[in-house]
């Protein structure tokens, strides 16, 4: 895909998604904003794991870094008298920078490690960051940093609800993050990442510096995770250590695997599942005639169970995840169509039947 | 890359657009929920909701509160409800995580269309939705936290407190300690590193001027050896605790292990005898807890008619769950909401519910009547002192009232609110 096409597709997707918000009620818009926030993180993670072959269990910590960066910058600017769009942009950039620097450090160490050792290193980070945040006075301990309430900006106030506005902002940031990742994936850097993932020695012989590529992958992935944390902080007006625990890290990874490793569409599906599954399970259990004590007990734990089962079933039946299953189904359909109607008159025979891009992204690890 | 040019892209874009439209249609179809004239109220039910930790580390100490409240609403519904409507109490788990609170409270307001959010639990969690609820004009009643933030009628007209605030508790406990131990004692405090600890310590210093040692802990760190050690080293003889139940137990246990003896006085949030006994165990618990001083503002003594009623409801509607301070708390909140609803008129609205509270007619069931009024959203203006004697926790002495500024601590000369009509409020 040429860079211009990717940009146009990103812009078109954003406009469509913003149009979509008019069809949704406020709660749905709030969920959409959360999906957009998690999408930033899952998209970054899927590029890191699927393309560069490095496993990270630390993405919740990188989101937290972005969230704190956003909240503290935003607060500092508020007390300096800066408001509105400049404050939001500066705070978002700060979030990306904080997460990016943390990711750079992590990547520098991670480029020397493989497999379980890298996973262990990133796990340390996700355990350490909330603990440090909880004990540093400037970060307000367990309570976290609360942000000033900010409504819909003036002229739009009569038109849209707060949740819709938050969804717009979240979608815009997510569109930037995902488009950026798509550009990286389709460009030279993406090719290098795949080369390093598949065979480091061969890549080095071809003139690629594997360590540099791996560190770059970590930085890119961290920046988008930081953007996700910034969006989450913007939407919930607070950032606290309790929101970015190991379990969120694991859920992000599960979402990426369930969605389909290495695929941005899969990352989006994973983010949707991450937000909708607890709500769906809650709605279903509400409809079942269960005694209130049972529902109280399973509320909160059942979604995790369903998520786990989904992971096992998908890995067993469709290792490519949801996105992989979609691609496979599409390829099957196309093959069947070719068998039944050997000479289609409208479309020229597709030269790229199962696109090589897809096969290059089929997960071999993770 | 060159293989990917032209034809697939346009088709791809079209397909993406198709997917978006399909997705939009599905979501729009499922999202249809027509808002009622008055949210949460229909022919025969009133729907309200709460956020509370049912999972995660805080669940152990608090999950029994919402269960007790649900049991009381079941009892009320079996006895005709309020104005012929039964009350449906939607309990949402937030795992004591402010980010989750944001989500579940929006779900309550926008999906379940609740009339009010009742007894949302926790300072950090509830702070995260305070603006949202007030911005949307949703009654935010009886917050289960002693932060003074809930009593700001000017800024947050829809929010009403329930717990006696931490400043009041701190002042009364400090006053009691001063009367009992005099000026020679060395006073110290161990507090949670958030508003709970800060406000409580502010209350203490209003009365005691100075504390010999001020220690703090973070909930995420299950070790207070350093803090207790510092208090021992400072020679503290009378120690105040702004701790949740788990950390009260931890502090007492740690001190005992270090062979450090002192008088302990704890906030009502961390001074519930049955709960503490659960943490410390039947074997050592009674000895460790003997003499523990705490505060309370709800009916508490075993022979109190309210407590007898609550015990009955607990056996019948709560499956005979362990009867603790949390049970009384949950049922008291439920009763107080029922009373407010009864005073809000035949067809209650969000506005009439808040008006009923502002009229000052809702008195609750405490050892002193609720202090709600046109310019006060403070629930309890005072607290009583409890001690543990021979394994029984009960009130001693008078009920004390004070403000949450630097006013005097004075004895309350009124009566506790009496039980009427088997705890079924009449309009």
TrEMBL record, chain A:
Ranges of Low complexity compositional bias? 355-366
- UniProt KW keywords: Cell membrane, Membrane, Transmembrane, Transmembrane helix
Keyword Transmembrane helix belongs to the record: yes
Q: How does it sit in the membrane?
A: Multi-pass membrane protein
Q: Which subcellular locations apply to this protein?
A: Cell membrane
| Transmembrane portions of the chain | 7-24, 30-49, 61-82, 88-110, 117-139, 165-184, 215-235, 241-258, 265-284, 304-329
Establish whether keyword Transmembrane is in the entry.
yes
Location of region: Disordered: 337-366
Q: What is the lineage of its organism?
A: Bacteria, Bacillati, Actinomycetota, Actinomycetes, Micrococcales
Q: What is the protein named?
A: Branched-chain amino acid ABC transporter permease
| Pro residues composition-biased segments | 345-354
UniProtKB/TrEMBL annotation, chain B:
Query: Has the keyword Signal been applied to this entry?
Result: yes
- Signal sequence span is 1-36
Give the InterPro entries listed for this entry: Leu-bd, Peripla_BP_I
Keywords tagged on the record: Signal
What PROSITE patterns does the database record attribute to this sequence? PROKAR_LIPOPROTEIN
Domain Leucine-binding protein positions: 45-390
Is 4Fe-4S set as a keyword in this record?
no
Q: Which residues form a coiled coil?
A: none
Q: Output the SUPFAM superfamilies linked to this UniProt entry.
A: Periplasmic binding protein-like I (SSF53822)
The record's CDD domains line, in alphabetical order, gives: PBP1_ABC_ligand_binding-like (cd06343)
Similarity remark: Belongs to the leucine-binding protein family.
Q: Kindly provide the name given to this protein in its UniProt entry.
A: ABC transporter substrate-binding protein
| Protein's organism | Cellulomonas phragmiteti
């Amino acid at each position: 895909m040429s860079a211009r096409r990717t940009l146009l597709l990103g812009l078109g997707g954003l406009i469509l998604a913003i149009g979509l918000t008019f069809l949704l009620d406020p709660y749905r818009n709030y969920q959409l904003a959360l999906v957009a926030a998690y999408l930033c993180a899952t998209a970054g993670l899927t590029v890191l794991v699927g393309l560069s072959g490095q496993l990270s269990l630390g993405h919740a910590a990188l989101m937290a870094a972005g969230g704190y960066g956003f909240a503290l910058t935003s607060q500092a600017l508020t007390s300096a008298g800066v408001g509105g769009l400049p404050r939001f942009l500066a705070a978002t950039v700060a979030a990306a920078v904080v997460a990016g620097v943390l990711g750079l450090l992590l990547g520098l160490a991670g480029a020397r490690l493989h497999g379980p050792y890298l996973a262990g290193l990133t796990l340390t980070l996700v355990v350490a960051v909330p603990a440090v945040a909880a004990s540093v006075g400037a970060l307000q301990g367990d309570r976290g940093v609360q942000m000033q309430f900010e409504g819909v900006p003036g002229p739009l106030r009569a038109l849209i609800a707060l949740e819709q506005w938050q969804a717009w902002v979240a979608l815009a940031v997510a569109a930037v993050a995902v488009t950026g990742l798509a550009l990286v994936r389709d460009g030279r850097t993406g090719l290098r990442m795949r080369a390093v993932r598949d065979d480091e020695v061969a890549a080095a012989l071809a003139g690629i510096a594997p360590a540099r590529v791996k560190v770059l992958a970590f930085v890119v992935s961290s920046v988008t995770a930081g953007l996700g944390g910034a969006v989450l902080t913007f939407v919930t007006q607070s950032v606290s250590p309790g929101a970015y625990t190991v379990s969120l890290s694991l859920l992000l990874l599960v979402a990426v695997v369930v969605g389909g490793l290495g695929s941005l569409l899969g990352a989006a599906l994973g983010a949707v599942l991450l937000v909708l599954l607890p709500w769906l399970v809650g709605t279903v259990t509400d409809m079942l005639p269960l005694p209130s004590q049972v529902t109280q007990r399973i509320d909160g734990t059942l979604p995790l169970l369903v998520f786990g089962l989904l992971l096992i079933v998908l890995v067993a039946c469709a290792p490519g995840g949801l996105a992989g299953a979609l691609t496979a189904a599409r390829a099957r359909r196309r093959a069947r169509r070719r068998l039944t109607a050997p000479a289609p008159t409208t479309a020229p025979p597709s030269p790229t039947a199962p696109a090589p891009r897809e096969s290059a992204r089929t997960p071999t690890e993770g | 890359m060159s293989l990917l040019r032209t034809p697939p892209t346009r088709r791809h874009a079209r397909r993406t657009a198709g997917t978006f439209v399909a997705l939009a249609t599905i979501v729009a179809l499922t999202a249809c929920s027509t808002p009622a004239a008055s949210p949460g109220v229909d022919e025969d039910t009133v729907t309200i909701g709460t956020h509370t930790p049912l999972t995660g580390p805080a669940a152990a100490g608090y999950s029994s509160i919402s269960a007790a409240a649900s049991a009381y609403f079941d009892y009320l519904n079996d006895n005709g409800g309020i104005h012929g409507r039964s009350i449906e109490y939607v309990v949402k788990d937030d795992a004591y995580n402010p980010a989750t609170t944001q989500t579940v409270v929006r779900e309550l307001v926008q999906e379940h269309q609740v009339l009010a959010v009742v007894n949302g639990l926790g300072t950090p969690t509830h702070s995260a939705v305070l603006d949202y609820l007030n911005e949307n004009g949703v009654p935010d009643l009886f917050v289960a936290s002693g932060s003074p933030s809930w009593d700001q009628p000017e800024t947050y007209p829809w929010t009403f407190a329930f717990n006696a605030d931490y400043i009041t508790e701190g002042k009364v406990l400090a006053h009691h300690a001063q009367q009992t131990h005099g000026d020679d004692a060395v006073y110290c405090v161990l507090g949670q590193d958030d508003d709970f600890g800060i406000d409580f310590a502010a209350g203490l210093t209003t009365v005691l001027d100075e504390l010999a040692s001020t220690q703090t802990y973070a909930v995420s760190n299950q070790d207070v050896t350093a803090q207790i050690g510092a208090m021992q080293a400072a020679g503290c003889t009378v120690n105040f605790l702004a701790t949740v139940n788990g950390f009260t137990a931890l502090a007492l246990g740690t001190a005992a292990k270090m062979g450090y003896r002192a008088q302990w006085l704890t906030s009502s949030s961390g001074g519930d005898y049955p709960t503490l006994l659960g943490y410390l165990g039947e074997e050592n618990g009674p000895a460790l807890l003997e003499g523990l001083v705490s505060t309370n503002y709800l009916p508490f003594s075993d022979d109190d008619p309210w407590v007898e009623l609550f015990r009955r409801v607990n056996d019948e509607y709560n499956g005979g769950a362990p009867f603790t301070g949390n049970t009384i708390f949950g049922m008291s909140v439920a009763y107080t909401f029922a009373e407010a609803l009864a005073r809000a008129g035949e067809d209650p609205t969000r506005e009439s519910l808040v008006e009923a509270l502002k009229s000052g007619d809702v008195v609750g069931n405490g050892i002193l009547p609720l202090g709600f009024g046109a310019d006060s959203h403070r629930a309890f203006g005072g607290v009583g002192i409890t001690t543990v004697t021979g394994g029984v926790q009960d009130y001693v002495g008078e009920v004390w009232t004070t403000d949450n500024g630097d006013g005097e601590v004075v004895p309350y000369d009124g009566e506790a609110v009496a039980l009427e009509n088997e705890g079924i409020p009449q309009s």
